Amino acid sequence: MNGPHRDVGDTETPRALRSLRTRLNDLFEEFFEKVGTEHPSVSGHALPGLPGHADVSTSESDWQVEIDLPGMELENIEVTADDDTLTVSAERHDERETSGRDYYFCERSHGRCERRFRLPPDMDPAKAKARYRDGVLTVTVPRKAGAKKKPAKTIRIASA
Fold it and tell me: What is the pTM for the complete model shown?
């Protein structure tokens, strides 16, 4: 067969499909690696071996983020807020030594994680509050006085 279409028996077709599948897999992996780090409302990430996974929610009265930071010391956690961004930074310094009959073992782990969250425009970061308990940091940012959560708009889907 002539033209851009190939014959089913063509040996190049399986190789081309494998190449396409590999490229698509690479694109998906790259996309999912960036989700959470380049998303317009959430950025930053935990370094390998460090915590930092987050749950974000809103209610009628506030916006809240809960971040897993197990094993972090309170004095090594910092929360800052400006007009539209909440930033959470944490640093870990861990060192363990073990010795026994015929051995000595020393292990160190150091690292830092940082997460940034874009705040909705009707939030009041000046009144934000943070609490750290059982390895979970909870930051609550209230809505500005008089601001109300807008109801979600339902969008009708047309058939093709």
Answer: 0.59
* Domain residue limits, the chain: 11-40, 44-142
| Fold (topology level) of 44-142 | Immunoglobulin-like (2.60.40)
Q: Are the beta carbons of 63 and 50 closer than 8 angstroms? A: no
Residues 6+ apart with CB under 8 A from 62: 123, 140, 141, 142, 143
What are 3-43's pLDDT values in tens digits? 555 555 556 667 777 788 888 777 766 655 554 443 434 44
C-alpha to C-alpha distance for 26 and 64, rounded to whole angstroms: 34
Distance CA 32, CA 115 (A): 17
Strands 62-68 and 38-39 come out as: unpaired
Which residues in 46-134 belong to E strands, given as ranges?
Answer: 54-58, 62-68, 77-81, 85-99, 104-118, 129-133
